[in-house]
Amino acid sequence: MSLGWLPGREIKVIRRAPFGDPTIYLVDSTEISLRQDESRMIKVEPIYPAPLSVVPKGTYVVLNFMAGKFFTYKTASLGIEIGKEIQVLSDTLNCKVSVMVGEKKFLINHGMAQKILVERKK
């Protein structure tokens, strides 16, 4: 709590180490680095729209991409398009996110998942 981790505070993921540990967070104007075992003790909820890389298991709708045309073509080839449903099958603290689009299951790397904005399906 002395570092600014208080209820109702907005916390932003700045970057993760290549294998997902540690993660650097931004709380107010302070960058804080925490290992996975430490960060698991803090309950947070994403603010939507959120990057696919930070959402928990569940079903989401793709809202936007934070990238250019090449990225949009690449995601379309996987079946990931704006307005489509995507199901997150695994927790996203690892380097890859396990997803299912339609009947296809595959892994998306963290960098790509960071550029896909989603919202929880209602």
Report the sheet with the most strands, covering strand number, pairing sense and barrel closure. Answer: 6 strands, antiparallel
Q: Would you give the CATH topology of the largest domain?
A: SH3 type barrels
**N- to C-terminal separation?**
33 Å
Architecture of the largest domain, CATH level 2? Roll
**Structural class by SSE content:** alpha+beta
User: Unreliable stretches, pLDDT < 50, 5 or more residues?
Assistant: none
Helical percentage: 10-25%
pLDDT averaged residue by residue:
84
What is the CATH first-level class name of the largest domain?
Answer: Mainly Beta
Element order: H for helix, E for strand: EEEHEEHEEEHE
How much strand content do the residues show? 35-45%
Instruction: Look at the structure and name the CATH superfamily of the largest domain.
Output: Ferrous iron transport protein A (FeoA)
Q: What is the overall number of helices? A: 3
Based on CA atoms alone, the radius of gyration comes out at 15 Å
Biggest sheet strand order reads 4-9-5-6-7-8
